[in-house]
From TrEMBL, chain A:
<feature type="domain" description="ABC transporter">
    <location>
        <begin position="2"/>
        <end position="233"/>
    </location>
</feature>
<dbReference type="InterPro" id="IPR003593">
    <property type="entry name" value="AAA+_ATPase"/>
</dbReference>
<protein>
    <submittedName>
        <fullName>Putative ABC transport system ATP-binding protein</fullName>
    </submittedName>
</protein>
<keyword id="KW-0813">Transport</keyword>
<dbReference type="GO" id="GO:0005524">
    <property type="term" value="F:ATP binding"/>
</dbReference>
<dbReference type="InterPro" id="IPR003439">
    <property type="entry name" value="ABC_transporter-like_ATP-bd"/>
</dbReference>
<comment type="similarity">
    <text>Belongs to the ABC transporter superfamily. Macrolide exporter (TC 3.A.1.122) family.</text>
</comment>
<dbReference type="GO" id="GO:0022857">
    <property type="term" value="F:transmembrane transporter activity"/>
</dbReference>
<dbReference type="Pfam" id="PF00005">
    <property type="entry name" value="ABC_tran"/>
</dbReference>
TrEMBL record, chain B:
<protein>
    <submittedName>
        <fullName>Putative ABC transport system permease protein</fullName>
    </submittedName>
</protein>
<feature type="transmembrane region" description="Helical">
    <location>
        <begin position="283"/>
        <end position="308"/>
    </location>
</feature>
<feature type="transmembrane region" description="Helical">
    <location>
        <begin position="26"/>
        <end position="46"/>
    </location>
</feature>
<feature type="domain" description="MacB-like periplasmic core">
    <location>
        <begin position="25"/>
        <end position="245"/>
    </location>
</feature>
<dbReference type="Pfam" id="PF12704">
    <property type="entry name" value="MacB_PCD"/>
</dbReference>
<comment type="similarity">
    <text>Belongs to the ABC-4 integral membrane protein family.</text>
</comment>
<keyword id="KW-1133">Transmembrane helix</keyword>
<keyword id="KW-0812">Transmembrane</keyword>
<dbReference type="GO" id="GO:0022857">
    <property type="term" value="F:transmembrane transporter activity"/>
</dbReference>
Amino acid sequence: MLEIKNLHKSYPIGDSSLHVLKGINLSVEEGEMVAIMGSSGSGKSTLLNIIGMLDEADSGEYILDGLPIKNLTEKKAAVYRNKFLGFIFQSFNLINYKNALENVALPLYYQGMKRKERQELAMFHLEKVGLANWAHHLPKELSGGQNQRVAIARALAANPKLLLADEPTGALDTTTSHEIMAFIQQLNDEGKTILMVTHEEDIANMCKRIVRLRDGVILEDVKVTQVRAEQYV
Amino acid sequence: MFKFLFESDTWQEVFDSFSKNKLRSILTMVGVWWGILLLIGLLGSARGLENSFNRLFGSFATNSVFVWGQNTSKPFKGFQEGKQVRLSLTDAKKVEENVEGIEFVLPRSQQGTNVTRNFLSGSFQMAGDYPLLDQLQKKKLINGRFINQNDIDDNKKIAVISEDTYKQLFEKDEDAIGKYIDINGINFIVVGIFEVGNVNMGPSTDIHIPFTTFQQIYNRGDRIGWMMITGKPDYDIKQIEEDVKLLLKNLNNIHPEDSRAFGSFNLGKEFKKFTGFLIGMQFLTWFVGIATLIAGVFAIGNILLITVRERTKEIGIRRALGATPFEIKRQIVLEAVFLTMVAGIFGIITGGWILIGLDAAFGQGTDAVIVNASVSIAIVFIALIILVVLGSLIGLIPAFKATSIKPIEALREE
């Protein structure tokens, strides 16, 4: 599914440069649920951004589902993101003047899907996250948990190969976090491959595998027994 | 490529971002609205002035030159300088026959005279004229008729008098047609009364009598006062003036380079000056209008630049979700065009109202300052096309700004 070999990335800071990723090797199979952990500055967000094609590596190989991701133009990156990836952000990143349904339909709009079709599909995904009744509410009229569920629906809308979550529970309280995690686990049970950045140990333990980063290298890569989130809900 | 223009989704997106900040969008449009309003208002008024000008001169052969004799300034063929030059009917005939591009040559004579009627009297300028004058310099007759060929042939003692002359010689509401007036001791029958127009070229005349009668009573014989020469529409009146003068010098034994022997007044040249002024005014109008328009469009570009800055995160989200840079740019350019177009259309409508108002206030009656103030549909279209072009060009700046930031940085923006 995902194959990363000897990935390097550094950012220029003034005259010198900061070496953030120092040779990452990572392989993720289909249906896995991986937590990437590490303290701030460990390079976990950078790694996720590179996987999300929002950023490009300096050297190394990145193959997504057999497709080498290299020297992408902005346009190509946009098309790949739309087709292959679903993003879930810490701060939800919904468009504030669009209602829940329109937000979910946005990736489909950029796929060039017809309005009616798009709205139906968006509605289907909103139902799936249990927010069908809230379809016509603006993000500011929804709670944090509801907003994150809208964001998940949006990430799922284009039926991506890989879900990327950047601290999906970072802005939520414990109960809501567990709700969201339960939902993400359910998605994984259905076969979605999920990659998640987190620094919370209990959230990481709800995944099936934990990759720990420190100073740009992988410190530890272990399979764990998944803690089901439902029991806390 | 332009299919997206016909998709409701595209416009929905434009509309969403427009309605997100209505007040600012409206304020943004004021500049362009004002520019196009100015353009339409000024162009319409300029056209109105031109129309009224044309109406004043419409009855006037503008491609004309007056030529009269003065004193020579160079000795020639035994004649000393200072010889008085007098034009004759033969000169007029020769000019008409020999100079290229001439439509008419109209000889005229004029003299001051005393006129009495019963106990009323006054001194007036009287001219001897041919019926042709009515064609070159349309007389607005209030009553009666102008001189006709019959009057010329029979040296009739008839007179066509101006409204002012009538007022001086007749009692109020008295019928003047058919009454006699005494000109230098000779009785003339009044056959017509004319109104003096707003614009008069050449010396003003109070009384017109038949040319032949004039020549007879003043014993002028062949000599004439001056001639009015009208060129054919596609001939340059300045060239005609030169040719005529050269011919006249030749006929009257005057040095070819004597520049003072003949006086002239080139109506065509004066007319051109005025039309030049009108053209200048239109040019100024376009300049001011377009400059204001550009300023207005820049204001829109400026605001969009700020808007794009504010929407950095939104644009980042869209790009993360799969919007290509082209789609983002297209969106922003479309917003710019949309704003300019809406502002422009409002400007055209309000500009039209202003012209309607001007027409109601100044455009009524025969002596209106502004006649039919209007702007042609073609100009409206040109203005709209300019708006679309300027709008898209100016939209490109914020559009490129929007996509110059990497999506990852845009997402980090708070």
